[in-house]
Amino acid sequence: MKRTTRLLPRAHPRGSKKAALRIHGTIARRLGVAILAGRYAPGDILGGEVESAEQLAVSRTAYREAVRILAAKGLVDARPKVGTRVNPQAKWNFLDTDVLEWIFETEPDAQILDALFELRDLVEPAAAALAATRRSAAQLARMRQALDDMQRNTLATEAGQNADLAFHATLLEATRNPFLVSLATSVGAAIHITTVFKQRSEPLRRDPMPEHRRVCQAIADQNPERARSAMRGLIRLARIDTSAVARSRKRSAR
Questions:
Q1: What is the spatial distance between Cα 148 and Cα 220, in angstroms, rounded to a whole number?
Q2: pLDDT in the model for residue 80
Q3: Whether the Cβ atoms of residue 153 and residue 159 lie closer than 8 Å to each other
Q4: Fewer CB near the terminus (10 Å): N or C of the chain?
Q5: Alpha-carbon distances, residue 33 vs 12, 54, 187, 214 (angstroms)
Q6: Contact 174, 136 (CB under 8 A)
Q7: Mean pLDDT of the chain
């Protein structure tokens, strides 16, 4: 099925080459959000290059570059004489930081939320257990400092959110497993984006510090099983908070 309805607002007028570079990122984001929100379904063919560029009031070059961004993230497949087709979900790179952010631009699907927290539950408890046996004194000090900064600033602020990110990134670093460390960007993005999502309407009422402190203390005590259990508890409560916010926002939108 080919859809040609106007799903997106018009972009800025054509301008300099530098402006075009900014515009293609904006167009990629708008199209990406539309795909992830289900306004384009897998198998749909986006409008042609000329038609879409005119609809969005951008150059064909900017639109073409936007499509290349989406193709690199697995969201679309662009082929000459066929057009730009939305890929099935199995090809989407859900761990791409932009894709994660675009998912939460609207109201995320419950199944996507569940899948995201399943990933965290598979990775982070095991990482916490490894960190408990492999962390250095310097890494432990950084984790403690991150939690102090998080408590002082709260998750309602950018500084507090960055401190939370630093805690989880340092924990993965402390595993000394290069494959787990390589997940720090994606896992960190998932944590950060869900935190921002939870804070979007009103500050989180539950104090998130106790479970973070329990994880850190277990790592300090070099107790892998307690670290694993504490991290599972942290993720479970974060999942409950995020699901509650999503349900509340859906009720408000009715």
A1: 15
A2: 80
A3: yes
A4: C
A5: 18, 20, 20, 37
A6: yes
A7: 86
- Residue ranges of alpha helices (H) inside 37-175 are 49-56, 60-72, 97-103, 110-134, 137-153, 158-173
Which tens digits make up the pLDDT trace of 28-40? 999 999 999 999 9
For domain 97-253, is the CATH number 1.20.120.530?
A: yes
CATH 1.20.1090.10 fits 17-91, yes or no: no
Strand partners, 106: none
Every domain of the chain with CATH number 1.20.120.530 lies at 97-253
Tell me if 174 sits within 8 A of 134, measured CB to CB: yes
Residue extent(s) of CATH 1.10.10.10 domains in the chain:
17-91
pLDDT surpasses 70 at 16: no
Strand partners, 84: 78
pTM, full prediction = 0.81
Note whether 20 and 61 are within 8 A (CB): yes
Token pair recorded at residue 95: 């761990």
- 3's torsion region: left (phi>0), alpha (psi -120 to 50) or beta? beta
> What's the rounded Cα separation, in Å, for the pair 205 and 246?
15
| pLDDT tens digits along 66-89 | 999 999 999 999 888 778 999 999
Q: Tell the residue number behind the tokens 């850190």, with chain if given.
A: 216
Distance CA 175, CA 190 (A): 19
Query: Does residue 233 come out as left (phi exceeding 0), alpha (psi in the -120 to 50 range) or beta?
Result: alpha
- 248: confidence class by pLDDT, cuts 50, 70, 90: low
Q: Are 184 and 94 spatial neighbours (Cβ–Cβ below 8 Å)?
A: no
